[in-house]
Amino acid sequence: MDAVLNNLSKIGQLKVISRTSVEQYRNTTKTAPEIARELGVSYILVGSAQKYGQEIRITTQLISAETDGNMWSQEYTRTFKDVLLLQSEIAEKVADELKATLTSKEQEELRKFPTKVPEAFNSYILANFQLRKSTKEGFQKATLLYEKAIEIDPKYVDAYVGLAEQWQTGGLVWGIYNEVEAKVQATTLLKQALKLDAEHAGAHSLIATVYFYYDWNFDSALEHFQLVKKITGHESVFSRDYHIKIGDFKTALSTIEYFIENYPSTSSNYSFKAITEYFLGNQSKAIQTQDKAYQLFDDFWFLRDAAKLYYNLGELEKSKSSLEKLKSNFPDRPLIVVWLDAVHAYHEGGDNQVYQNQIRQNV
Length: 363
Description:
Layout: H1 2-9, H2 19-22, H3 32-39, E1 43-52, E2 55-64, E3 70-79, H4 83-97, H5 104-110, H6 118-131, H7 136-152, H8 157-172, H9 179-196, H10 201-215, H11 218-232, H12 239-245, H13 249-262, H14 267-279, H15 283-294, H16 300-312, H17 316-329, H18 335-347, H19 353-362
Antiparallel strand pairs: 1-2, 2-3
């Protein structure tokens, strides 16, 4: 699924919803039109796979949201070794059915395989799954799996970028690793990735965040963000926060509106929009944006941002409610949650020393 979505995203004429947005519908009873309406899309690609020894059977369907009718369906039987080729074949077929015209560069990108070794690809996919759990155990398992993928195929650029993301996020957001060590590890891996592929958009996007969040080196971050746009034709997802942090709120708002239009089910877009509206001096609009999003999302990242943003907006009860929901739904959580507990304890006149001690013990 990841690979097919990634390939479809390379086609400029198609707007493809992210994996995290569609994952919630894996076991849903909702109809295709209902799902499409919620995601803001016109078509849904449905697929399933079964593995028998070294043979894999993949069934795909392209469904029209307007008619709930089947536009195209196909069953493929391949060996595991040939699955990498099949992922591009499916993407090209979907583009053809939707009458999307591919540029020569897009065709070249679709037929470029990140690795030709199925075992390395399998390890990489499993690593991504573990990383997205957003747990300490998940990070640890992801590390081993990314390293295994690199060991199997030392030229597998995506695996270097995935391992770098694990270090960057684990050190900066979760506090699992020492920040200095995390920065060194992530930077080393990303430089190696760019040696292997100087136009790897993911590597440029991630190294920009290392320069930006760790070093506050805005010039170097901007250089890599611009390279992402040159390579892909699209803004890096991290550019939303970049424009906010440098105080260019009008550009931030237009960038965020772009992401909302193209990725309406990504919860962080709305938090960034609310933050930007707040900095533009429209506090009531910021609260309205956040309130509306709160009715739709309850993932970890959204609840974390909601707890922080509501506090800054003076909506203390909403902040505390978001924090309690975050703690209840996600028991394995980073130090930011302890910090939020400390902030609320201080505001309420209580003793926040216990929270301060927890933070110091883990720094």
